[in-house]
Amino acid sequence: MSRPAAAPPRGERDRLIAAARAAVGRAYAPYSRYRVGAAVLSDDGRIFSGANVENASYGLTLCAERAAVAAAVAAGARRLTAAAIAAARAPAPTPCGACRQVLAEFAGPDAPVYVAAARGPVRRYRLGALLPHGFAFPAPAARRP
């Protein structure tokens, strides 16, 4: 069983949330007009961000969380310790089911997930609480390339 992930220090958490909020401005959301940005924190302290990319064929839309995870994986990160998701307007977005499962592939059930609108309070969730019966959270060794 993996060790619980500790919440990142406040400064790192603030950088993560700021990166998610900054990514909102890069979203491509001409259909829903609900712009979302996300950022993930790797175990070596790097932050990767992504934005939602909509498509006229809605099934091809890419959520911000999966875009951030893809950026992390493309850069060689395999272990994520926290995530932040922000939207341009209320309500603050929690990850969809697919994004919860993708986050679970790279972070343990105790990883904190922060959600926020462009302004206002930030809520913190535990990934395992958002995805209580997801596919097994892989052991850290299984995440290595």
Describe this structure as you would to a colleague.
There is one protein chain. The model has no long low-confidence stretch (mean pLDDT 89). The protein starts with 9 loop residues before the first helix and ends in a 15-residue tail after the last helix. The longest helix has 15 residues, at 10-24. It has helices at residues 10-24, 64-74, 97-106, 127-130, and strands at residues 36-42, 47-51, 80-87, 112-117, 122-126. It is 28% helix and 21% strand. It is of the alpha+beta class and 145 residues long. It has a 5-stranded mixed beta sheet. It has one domain (10-129): Cytidine Deaminase, domain 2. It has 4 helices and 5 strands, in the order αββαβαββα. A hairpin with a 4-residue loop joins strand 1 (36-42) and strand 2 (47-51).
SSE arrangement, N to C: HEEHEHEEH
CATH architecture: 3-Layer(aba) Sandwich
Major sheet size, sense and barrel closure? 5 strands, mixed
Radius of gyration: 14 Å
* CATH topology annotation: Cytidine Deaminase, domain 2
Helix content: 25-40%
**How many domains is the backbone divided into?**
1
Number of strands: 5
Low-confidence stretches: none
First CA to last CA: what distance? 20 Å
Strand content: 15-25%
Topology, element by element:
Layout: H1 10-24, E1 36-42, E2 47-51, H2 64-74, E3 80-87, H3 97-106, E4 112-117, E5 122-126, H4 127-130
Parallel strand pairs: 3-4
Antiparallel strand pairs: 1-2, 1-3, 4-5
